Amino acid sequence: MNRIQTRFDALRTAGRRALIPYITAGDPDIGTTETLLHTLVASGADIIELGVPFSDPMADGPVIQRACERALAAGTRLRDVLALVRRFRERDADTPVVLMGYLNPVEAMGYAAFAEAAAQAGVDGVLTVDLPPEEAHELTQALLASDLDPIFLLAPTSTEARIRRIGALARGYLYYVSLKGVTGSARLNTGEVAEKVARIKALVDVPVGVGFGIRDADSAAAVARVADAVVVGSALVSRIEALAGDPQQLNAEIGALLGAMRTAMDAVTA
Questions:
Q1: Closest-CA residue to 208 (of 216, 218, 217, 197)
Q2: Average pLDDT of the chain to the nearest whole number
Q3: Residue 179 confidence (pLDDT) above 90
Q4: For 229, which DSSP code?
Q5: How far apart (Å, rounded) are the C-alpha atoms in residues 267 and 189?
Q6: Which tens digit of pLDDT belongs to each residue from 221-234?
Q7: Which residue in 9, 27, 34, 60 is the catalytic one?
Q8: Is the per-residue pLDDT at 148 higher than 80?
Q9: Into how many domains does the chain fold?
Q10: Distance between CA atoms of residues 131 and 101, nearest Å
């Protein structure tokens, strides 16, 4: 049993939902990201999605696209991200870390080499945005061999058959993309999300998280009523962009936003 399942089991016992923040590794630099990882945990994060910067992040809107550009300009590469996780583990042995990114850097390293290096660094799961499940067998097998959870996306347009197929492959949790668009592109329709999540949960055996469109405590609480996890990315990354030159204020604002989400989520599930 790895850290992701352990964390979801503990949350389920406590009647709580997982709060999963996303930030891009190396934005604006690796040192800032390392500090932010601990700020996220202190502010209520249950699992962290750590973005691996990529030159063409096609599923992401302009906020995260710019974050990738800044991280790449700072020289951040996949091996730097793994080294960052390894340093994070020196102080935090419990918080699950999921790498979220695109296939090219993983393929360049080699599936088996990547999986082994990620596991040794302390990674718990991998979400490869542009790898459809129909083509994921080789990477999935490498991840499972290293006790890493392969995590997949579901879309609002996913059919029942596809939901079942992806649910059978996934470990850790499923990430339901609540909007037809890129990250940060629109506001959440919580009624539609509730209906879709209920359908998904009836078809799969893994926890279901919801991301895209979660901007504040109210939207986080609304999703916590119906999903097992709330994923927030652009709202945090936009603050990193605005406050990159003021690390103290940056950590304070990130902590305040995430803390407000945590409080609101716990209030509706208590």
A1: 197
A2: 93
A3: no
A4: E
A5: 21
A6: 999 999 999 999 99
A7: 60
A8: yes
A9: 1
A10: 10
How confident is the model over 167-186, as a mean pLDDT? Answer: 76
Reply yes or no on whether 49 is catalytic. Answer: yes
3 state SS of 174: strand
The DSSP symbol for 202 reads T
Cα 207-44-96 angle, rounded to 5 deg: 50
Which residues, 6+ apart, have CB-to-CB distance to 13 below 8 Å?
A: none
Residue type, 68: C
Q: Which of 49, 124, 149, 228 is catalytic?
A: 49
Structural domain of 263? 3-269
Check residue 183 and report its DSSP letter: T
CB neighbours of residue 201 within 10 Å: 19
Q: What average pLDDT does the segment 248-265 reach?
A: 97
DSSP notation for 100-168: EE-HHHHHHH-HHHHHHHHHHHT--EEEETT--GGG-HHHHHHHHHTT-EEE-EE-TT--HHHHHHHHH
SS3 (DSSP) at 184: coil
CATH of the domain at 120: 3.20.20.70
In order, the DSSP letters of 4-65 are HHHHHHHHHHHT--EEEEEEETTSS-HHHHHHHHHHHHHTT-SSEEEE---S--TTS-HHHH
Return the structure tokens found at 114: 């990547």
The string over 205-236, giving b where at least 16 C-beta atoms fall within 10 Å of a residue's C-beta and e elsewhere, is ebbbbbbbbbbebebbbbbbebbbbbbbbbbb
Looking at residue 207, its amino acid is P
Tokens of 140: 């999935």
